[in-house]
Amino acid sequence: MSHNQFQDYENRFIRIVCFIHYNIMLADVYISYPLEEFYTYRVPVGMNIAPYSRVRVNFAGKNLTAYVLRVHDNEPKDFELKDIIDLIDHDPIYDERLMDLARYTALNYLSSIGEALAMALPSGLKPSKRYKIPFDKLGVVIETQLNHEQKIIFDDIIDNKAALAHLIFGITGSGKTEIYIELARRLIPQGLSVIYLVPEISLSSMIFERMYGVFGDDLIIYHSHLTPNQRLHNWIRFYRGEARIAVGTRSAVFLQCPKLGMIVIDEEHDGSYKEHSTPRYNARRIALYRSKTEGALVVMGSATPAVETLYACEKGVMKLHTLKSRYGNASLPEIEIVRINSTKPKHIISTALKLNTKRTIDAGRQVIYLLNRRGFAPIVICGKCGWTMECPQCSIGMNYHRDRHMLCHYCGHRQAVPAACPKCGSEQIEKVGSGTQRVEEIIEKEFPDFTIFRLDQDSSRKKDTVPELIARMNRGEVNILVGTQLVAKGFDFHNITLVGVLLADIGMNMPDFRSSERIFSLLMQVAGRSGRGDAPGRVIIQTLDDQNPLFRFIRNHDYYGFYRSELEARRMLQYPPFTRLARLLVRGANEARVIASINSLKQALEEQAAALKADIRILGPSSAPFGRIGGNYRHHIIVKSSSVTALQETIGASRGAVTGRDVYLEIDIDPYELM
Ligand code: ADP
Ligand code: ZN
Ligand code: ZN
Q1: β-bridge mates for residue 366, sequence order
Q2: What one-character DSSP code corresponds to residue 672?
Q3: Ligand 1: does its nearest atom lie under 6 Å from the Cβ of 145?
Q4: Tens digits of per-residue pLDDT, 504-533?
Q5: Burial class (CB in 10 A: 0-12, 13-18, 19+), 560
Q6: C-alpha 332: how far from its chain's center?
Q7: Cα–Cα dist 637/624, whole Å
Q8: How far is CA 228 from CA 20, 130, 131, 201, 250, in A?
Q9: In 574-641, which ranges are continuous DSSP H helix?
Q10: Mutate which of 142, 178, 197, 322 for ligand 1 pocket (most atoms within 8 A of beta carbon)
């Protein structure tokens, strides 16, 4: 058989059988190493290998999964070829479309194709369907009909299938989910498949439960709480079209199917659509690419769209649809900003919050407390007015550093901690960085008669936490739900009428140009959990700095006001969407070597940029906000450019500068976490 015949066959299930003994059959495979090229192995006689399947090979002394690109009998260049050890898949589990997606991912996020394939494909070796759906009362069909506002958007999306993507900008509880479900119901009978992305595993089970009533066994779930073999089982069912709708987290964006009809990206602003290991892809961009290449509808939705997404709508790249009111005349909650005077745990529940909590629970309603203590580097804050220090050059929060100075983690600017607050003169300069854990105990002590449920990254890791929470909330067994940002995302509990944010200031000072956007969207989202049912809701946001202009937008539910002011700030300082960023992080156990490497990386970047005439700006190197994790020192460089190609080319040509023992380079294009 010739090489060409292999390239243009259409039948995905064709199987190549190598009977011909005197012809050595070879397979070109990719492996998940940072190497650009594919490798050639010999196919043992009698082994039936299909392109687009996985095999096991020995590479550099290790047995690894490899991804078969093609099988051929071309003269081998090297007669010392190793045999393929074994088959993993007996039939193809993907096709040329995934290869194309992997090439796109590798090119744009500067990984190898093998790494991109390993990211996209499930790692399980043997499909297993033993997965118990974690709900008691499945299969309740809830018949809904879109209201007038929803129907207009539905029609507009169906009539504009050619648009690259759609954004449904609808306040919390406005009925976006119903529109996605209706769209899926329209597309699936046409033989199309639908991928429905949610930002959190906990949300995927909620959406799954809601959709199971509509789609039954046509539905699969896809996220990392499944075992690798369960994921493989679901991957194959979706690939074969045995199930037409998939609900999943980020990596579900790579799912393959006979014909892709739509990708829904719920809560599109959420940071979890960005991957944290190589290739550091963003599911939003992968979805847009599949819109182009596979003609899929892409429908994103949010109550607080990412600044970059709304900007894309204003530029005409995406189509904007707006839902202005809550479904069924529920009103938006009233938001009150309450100033507190100390960050000490024992003062963390203000009188206003205390009274409102008691009143709410006495009225038979439920309460959410947001304890925003996601990972952040230590800051100093004026305990009187909430002032924190910003870098004069980058306008982002500075952090308290190991060497007792304030450090800007973008440009490396360094400054002493002031003795008094430059804004109000107070000498009450406090270091905040930990200690918030204790707040939970304080809440329990404060309200000994109430039932408290805690939801955070640790507790939600257990499989049953969220289903249990949902069941107990719905039965009215929980009085106060306390949690980190997880509680802000997507819950649709109808009996919550009070939301309390304990210390809004924490998120404000992240060393990240997106910190205002994040805190704004977090506060709006958590506020959106209040008053979703028949009774009006209230939100109490506690802060040290009630004069912060952000709160004016929040109190008025004024997304556009926030957006305009944020966009202006980004334009002035040249942050996305006006530029593209990359972050290059070098880590290693020996700090001197890390610093030497990052300096030679910087030099290489400067030389390559000059040679390529690439218009880029290099910030740093600086120690990263988390300057040391697990024994590794971390230093980084931020690169800015108006052209992402210039970024990619310059970095691609310079990356070789980081070499040697024990130093590792992490490349992040369009970074989301800058910690
Ligand atoms: P969003 O996704 O915008 O936050 P949801 O789709 O969750 O909003 O809708 C909020 C609430 O309103 C949910 O309880 C949902 O079941 C209900 N709802 C929305 N649209 C309809 C509809 N057309 N018919 C019946 N109930 C609806
Ligand atoms: Zn002050
Ligand atoms: Zn700076």
Answers
A1: 496
A2: S
A3: yes
A4: 887 776 678 898 999 999 999 999 999 888
A5: exposed
A6: 27
A7: 9
A8: 36, 12, 11, 15, 16
A9: 591-612
A10: 178
In angstroms, the CA 89 to CA 292 distance is 29
* Residue closest to 671 by CA, chosen among 644, 646, 649, 633: 644
Give me the chain's average pLDDT, please: 88
| Of residues 76, 72, 55, the one with CA closest to residue 6 | 72
The stretch 419-432 carries a mean pLDDT of 86
Å from CA of 349 to ligand 1 middle? 33
170 CA: nearest ligand 1 atom: 3
Read off the tokens for 389: 């220090």
Alpha helices in 420-500 (DSSP H): 439-446, 457-460, 465-474
Residues counted in the chain? 675
* Cα 265 to Cα 57: distance, rounded to the nearest angstrom: 37
Tokens 């300057």, located at residue: 627
pTM of the full predicted structure? 0.87
Q: Which tokens belong to 247?
A: 């609900």
Using pLDDT thresholds of 50, 70 and 90, give the confidence band for residue 19: very low
Pairwise CA distance, residues 212 & 140, whole Å: 8
166-170 and 297-302 beta bridge pairing: parallel
Cβ atoms of residues 245 and 254 within 8 Å: no
pLDDT band at 14 (very low <50, low <70, confident <90, very high): very low
Q: Residue 452 forms beta bridges with which residues?
A: 480
β partners of residue 59: 62
Q: What is the pLDDT of residues 325-368, one digit of tens each?
A: 888 777 889 999 999 887 776 778 999 999 999 999 999 999 99
Closest residue to atom 5 of ligand 1, CA basis: 175
Of 46, 42, 45, 100, the residue nearest 66 (C-alpha): 42
Q: Which residues surround ligand 2, an ion (CB under 5 A)?
A: 382, 384-385, 387, 421, 423-424, 426
Structure tokens at 194: 């639908």
Could you tell me if 101 and 254 are in contact, meaning their C-beta atoms sit under 8 angstroms apart? yes
Ligand 1 atom at minimum distance from 490 CA: 4
Does residue 185 sit in helix, strand or coil?
helix
Within 10 angstroms of residue 9's Cβ, the number of other Cβ atoms is 11
Instruction: Give the least confident one: 208-217, 373-382, 608-617, 664-673.
Output: 373-382
Q: At which residue do the structure tokens 């972050």 appear? A: 583
**Phi and psi torsions of 618, nearest 5°:** -110, 125
Query: Residue 294 has which token pair?
Result: 């596979």
Query: Residue 399: what pLDDT?
Result: 77
Confidence band of 377 (pLDDT split at 50, 70, 90): low
Quick one: pLDDT band at residue 630, thresholds 50, 70, 90? confident
Confirm if 230 and 236 have CB atoms less than 8 A apart.
no
Provide the token pair at 235: 């991957």
Which atom of ligand 1 lies at the shortest distance from residue 303's CA? 3
Q: Across the beta sheet with 480-483, what order do the strands follow?
A: 334-339, 538-543, 496-501, 366-370, 480-483, 452-455
Distance CA 280, CA 670 (A): 9
pLDDT in tens, 1-11: 344 444 444 33
CA distance 325 to 331: 8
